[in-house]
Protein backbone atom coordinates (compact mmCIF):
# COMPACT_ATOMS: atom_id res chain seq x y z
CA UNK A 1 0.00 0.00 0.00
CA UNK A 2 1.11 3.58 -0.53
CA UNK A 3 1.21 5.86 2.51
CA UNK A 4 1.17 9.64 2.08
CA UNK A 5 3.58 11.14 4.61
CA UNK A 6 3.99 14.66 3.22
CA UNK A 7 2.64 16.65 0.26
CA UNK A 8 3.78 14.84 -2.87
CA UNK A 9 5.54 12.04 -0.93
CA UNK A 10 3.99 8.56 -0.99
CA UNK A 11 5.98 5.62 0.34
CA UNK A 12 5.27 1.96 -0.31
CA UNK A 13 4.64 -0.09 2.84
CA UNK A 14 4.10 -3.85 2.92
CA UNK A 15 2.96 -5.57 6.13
CA UNK A 16 3.14 -9.24 7.10
CA UNK A 17 1.19 -10.51 10.09
CA UNK A 18 -1.60 -9.16 12.23
CA UNK A 19 -1.10 -6.44 14.83
CA UNK A 20 -3.47 -8.08 17.32
CA UNK A 21 -3.87 -11.76 18.18
CA UNK A 22 -6.39 -13.55 20.40
CA UNK A 23 -5.17 -14.13 23.95
CA UNK A 24 -7.98 -15.83 25.82
CA UNK A 25 -11.00 -13.51 25.83
CA UNK A 26 -8.91 -10.45 24.91
CA UNK A 27 -6.72 -9.29 22.07
CA UNK A 28 -2.99 -8.87 22.59
CA UNK A 29 -0.73 -6.61 20.53
CA UNK A 30 2.21 -8.35 18.89
CA UNK A 31 5.60 -6.62 18.73
CA UNK A 32 6.31 -4.72 15.54
CA UNK A 33 9.45 -4.96 13.44
CA UNK A 34 9.92 -2.25 10.82
CA UNK A 35 12.56 -2.85 8.16
CA UNK A 36 14.22 -0.08 6.16
CA UNK A 37 16.42 -1.18 3.26
CA UNK A 38 19.77 0.26 2.19
CA UNK A 39 20.26 2.09 -1.04
CA UNK A 40 20.33 3.76 -3.38
CA UNK A 41 18.28 1.77 -5.83
CA UNK A 42 17.18 -1.03 -3.50
CA UNK A 43 13.74 -2.01 -2.23
CA UNK A 44 12.28 -4.19 0.51
CA UNK A 45 12.14 -7.40 -1.54
CA UNK A 46 15.45 -8.71 -0.18
CA UNK A 47 13.99 -8.79 3.34
CA UNK A 48 10.83 -10.75 2.49
CA UNK A 49 12.16 -14.33 2.32
CA UNK A 50 13.76 -14.25 5.77
CA UNK A 51 11.70 -11.79 7.77
CA UNK A 52 8.24 -12.92 6.61
CA UNK A 53 8.89 -16.04 8.70
CA UNK A 54 8.56 -13.84 11.81
CA UNK A 55 4.95 -12.90 11.03
CA UNK A 56 3.62 -15.43 13.52
CA UNK A 57 5.39 -13.70 16.43
CA UNK A 58 5.55 -10.07 15.23
CA UNK A 59 3.94 -7.72 12.76
CA UNK A 60 6.61 -7.08 10.14
CA UNK A 61 6.55 -3.81 8.16
CA UNK A 62 8.68 -3.24 5.07
CA UNK A 63 9.15 0.34 3.84
CA UNK A 64 10.55 1.42 0.47
CA UNK A 65 12.29 4.79 0.92
CA UNK A 66 11.30 7.76 -1.25
CA UNK A 67 12.71 7.29 -4.72
CA UNK A 68 13.15 3.54 -4.21
CA UNK A 69 11.26 0.37 -5.12
CA UNK A 70 7.49 0.76 -5.26
CA UNK A 71 7.30 4.20 -3.64
CA UNK A 72 5.78 6.94 -5.78
CA UNK A 73 8.16 8.65 -8.17
CA UNK A 74 10.83 6.00 -7.80
CA UNK A 75 13.92 6.31 -9.93
CA UNK A 76 17.60 5.72 -9.31
CA UNK A 77 18.30 9.40 -10.06
CA UNK A 78 15.78 10.50 -7.42
CA UNK A 79 17.15 7.97 -4.92
CA UNK A 80 20.68 9.29 -5.38
CA UNK A 81 19.53 12.92 -5.15
CA UNK A 82 17.63 12.51 -1.85
CA UNK A 83 19.64 13.60 1.21
CA UNK A 84 19.88 10.78 3.76
CA UNK A 85 18.33 12.80 6.61
CA UNK A 86 15.01 12.65 4.72
CA UNK A 87 14.92 8.87 5.21
CA UNK A 88 14.92 9.15 8.99
CA UNK A 89 12.10 11.70 8.93
CA UNK A 90 10.20 9.57 6.42
CA UNK A 91 10.50 6.54 8.71
CA UNK A 92 9.09 8.56 11.62
CA UNK A 93 6.20 9.77 9.47
CA UNK A 94 5.37 6.27 8.22
CA UNK A 95 5.32 4.96 11.79
CA UNK A 96 3.12 7.86 12.86
CA UNK A 97 0.73 7.31 9.96
CA UNK A 98 -0.13 3.77 11.07
CA UNK A 99 -1.88 3.70 14.43
CA UNK A 100 -1.11 -0.01 14.78
CA UNK A 101 2.63 0.63 14.93
CA UNK A 102 4.32 1.84 18.11
CA UNK A 103 5.36 5.47 18.09
CA UNK A 104 8.67 4.94 19.88
CA UNK A 105 11.83 6.64 18.72
CA UNK A 106 13.42 4.97 15.70
CA UNK A 107 17.08 4.02 16.02
CA UNK A 108 19.68 3.87 13.33
CA UNK A 109 23.34 3.09 13.06
CA UNK A 110 26.03 5.41 11.78
CA UNK A 111 28.58 4.44 9.14
CA UNK A 112 30.84 2.83 11.73
CA UNK A 113 28.02 0.51 12.76
CA UNK A 114 27.58 1.99 16.24
CA UNK A 115 24.02 2.51 17.39
CA UNK A 116 22.93 6.05 17.99
CA UNK A 117 19.81 7.74 19.17
CA UNK A 118 17.94 9.20 16.19
CA UNK A 119 17.57 12.53 17.98
CA UNK A 120 21.31 13.17 17.94
CA UNK A 121 23.23 14.21 14.87
Give keywords.
121 residues, alpha+beta, 4-stranded mixed β-sheet, two-stranded antiparallel sheet, 3 helices, disordered C terminus
Give a short summary of the structure:
The protein is α+β, with helices and mostly antiparallel strands.
Beta-strand fraction estimate: 25-35%
Strand order of the largest sheet: 1-2-6-5
| Oligomerization category of the chains in this entry | single chain
Report on the biggest sheet: 4 strands, mixed
**Helix/strand order, N-terminal first:** EEEEEHEHHEE
Tally of individual helices: 3
Number of beta strands: 8
Rg calc: 15 Å
Average pLDDT reading: 75
Form type? elongated
Structural class computed from helices and strand pairing: alpha+beta
* Helical coverage, percent range: 10-25%
Q: Span from first to last CA?
A: 31 Å
Low-confidence stretches: 102-121
Amino acid sequence: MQVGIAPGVRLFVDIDGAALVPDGAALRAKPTLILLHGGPGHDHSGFKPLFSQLADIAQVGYVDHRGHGHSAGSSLAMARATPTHYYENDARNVIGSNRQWPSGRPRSSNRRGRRRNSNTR
